[in-house]
């Protein structure tokens, strides 16, 4: 089954609508979807290394736009539901202090989540929730996602054939490591 999924993804990379699918996945991953766009991006670059920079650019733009959706979710969820509940409980001052502390380190939080396997959607929503300055959020998101997606594109562009051979020979191991990183990212979020 894993081999069929891998072959399907490689075939999808050559499909005329592959970039649109990647754009959709990158967009929704930044606010609600649990699967990172790397799942599509890596096989797409392996299948068409000459399009590595285009693929990374589509992932970058879509991810940042999706991050803006996550920011809006955080902003409107807090204003509409969270703030009245906290005010009724007398916790509004504590929330204001948390918002200030988060925003003091917001640049680093967005940068770290944008580059690492840490779920970026958590930070996009928290950035809106804490009213991080939108300009800071956008600039940091662009920087972080560019580092992540273009580093992947550069590595696969430079070492694509050996990497593809390694992945195809050890598909089970590669998939297991990816799933472990994904679960680890969610575990980190849960216990922070």
TrEMBL record:
Ranges for domain VTT: 35-155
Keyword Membrane set for record: yes
Transmembrane segments: 20-40, 52-78, 105-123, 135-159, 171-189
Coiled-coil boundaries: none
GO annotations of cellular component type: plasma membrane
Source organism, top-level taxon: Bacteria
Keywords in alphabetical order: Membrane, Transmembrane, Transmembrane helix
A Pfam family of this chain: VTT_dom
InterPro entries registered for this protein in UniProt: DedA_domain (IPR051311), VTT_dom (IPR032816)
PANTHER family xrefs: ALKALINE PHOSPHATASE LIKE PROTEIN (PTHR42709), DEDA FAMILY PROTEIN (PTHR42709:SF11)
Protein name stated in the entry: Membrane protein YqaA, SNARE-associated domain
């Amino acid at each position: 089954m894993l081999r069929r999924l891998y072959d399907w993804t490689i075939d999808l990379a050559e499909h005329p609508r592959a970039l649109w699918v990647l754009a959709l996945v990158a967009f929704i991953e930044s606010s609600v979807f649990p699967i990172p766009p790397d799942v599509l991006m890596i096989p797409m670059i392996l299948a068409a290394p000459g399009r590595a920079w285009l693929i990374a650019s589509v992932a970058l733009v879509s991810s940042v736009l999706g991050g803006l959706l996550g920011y809006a979710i955080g902003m409107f969820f807090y204003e509409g539901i969270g703030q009245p509940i906290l005010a009724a409980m007398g916790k509004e001052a504590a929330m204001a202090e948390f918002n200030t502390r988060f925003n003091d380190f917001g640049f680093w939080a967005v940068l770290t989540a944008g580059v690492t396997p840490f779920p970026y959607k958590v930070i996009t929503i928290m950035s809106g929730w804490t009213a991080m300055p939108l300009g800071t959020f956008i600039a940091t998101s662009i920087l972080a996602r560019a580092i992540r997606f273009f580093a992947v594109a550069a590595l696969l562009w430079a070492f694509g054939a050996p990497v593809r051979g390694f992945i195809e020979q050890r598909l089970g191991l590669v998939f297991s490591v990816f799933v472990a990183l994904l679960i680890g990212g969610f575990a980190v979020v849960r216990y922070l």
